[in-house]
Design brief:
Elements lengths: L4 H12 L4 E3 L6 E5 L3 H11 L8 E3 L3 H4 L7 H10 L4 E6 L16 E5 L4 H9 L4 E2 L14 H8 L19 E4 L5 E4 L2
Parallel strand pairs: 3-5, 4-7
Antiparallel strand pairs: 1-2, 2-6, 3-6, 4-5, 7-8
Helix pairs in contact: 1-5
Bound molecules: adenosine monophosphate (AMP) and magnesium ion (MG).
Length: 189
């Protein structure tokens, strides 16, 4: 599918003013907001009716941009080289200087991060100066959407932009691996 640059720019504009937008990823559709903005992060929880103790995954364009926010180790580097960008999420220690809002990580000193591969989300990540906090674009407890129409049904007029990127290829959530100690799979994807 061809990328619609006008939509990418619209998403960029809205994200820059802490609005949330729904965008396609290779796993499922996501509800994205600026992970460095408390307003945006709190709005994600509100829109989804998500319990505040369930932390969000933060999405990055690449490793270079992650370095200022998280500590990493050799396990991470090996898995990054082999599997990223793609449907794999890592739990890492948050750096003291990290700009990620504590509302994203439910107050924990760790944070879950991912490098999505879908062209639309990558085009947006490349253009903004912050990573995206992005859970699936559904109300808490309902099924993760794999197409734009289902996102529209779920949120009606409560979000200003839903980008249609066709059906999500993978259709299930990412694998989550904790790398803060011995690597451990927290969620199979
Ligand atoms: P969802 O956004 O619904 O796909 O869920 C994100 C998943 O990542 C949940 O299963 C969370 O428990 C997990 N997660 C997010 N942040 C952390 C963290 N800091 N430590 C452990 N698990 C996390
Ligand atoms: Mg979800």
């Amino acid at each position: 599918m061809k990328i619609n640059l006008a939509n990418i720019k619209k998403a960029q504009k809205l994200l820059n003013i802490s609005e949330c937008v729904a965008i396609p990823t290779e796993t499922v559709y996501g509800l994205a907001g600026n992970a460095y903005s408390d307003i945006a992060c709190k709005n994600i929880y509100k829109l989804k009716k998500r319990p505040k103790n369930n932390p969000l995954i933060v999405h990055y364009f690449n490793f270079l941009r992650l370095k200022r926010d998280c500590d990493f180790n050799n396990d991470f580097l090996k898995l990054y080289k082999k599997f990223c960008p793609g449907p794999i999420t890592f739990v890492l220690k948050k750096r003291k200087k990290s700009k990620i809002k504590s509302s994203v990580a439910a107050g924990l000193n760790t944070v879950a991060i991912r490098f999505p591969s879908h062209r639309v989300v990558r085009a947006i990540l490349k253009r903004v100066n912050f990573p995206l906090a992005m859970p699936s674009a559904n109300l808490s407890m309902s099924i993760s959407p794999v197409n734009a129409l289902d996102v529209a049904d779920e949120f009606k007029k409560n979000i200003k932009l839903i980008i249609n990127g066709g059906k999500s290829k993978i259709g299930i959530e990412s694998t989550v691996i904790d790398l803060t100690a011995n690597p451990k799979i927290l969620r199979p994807g």
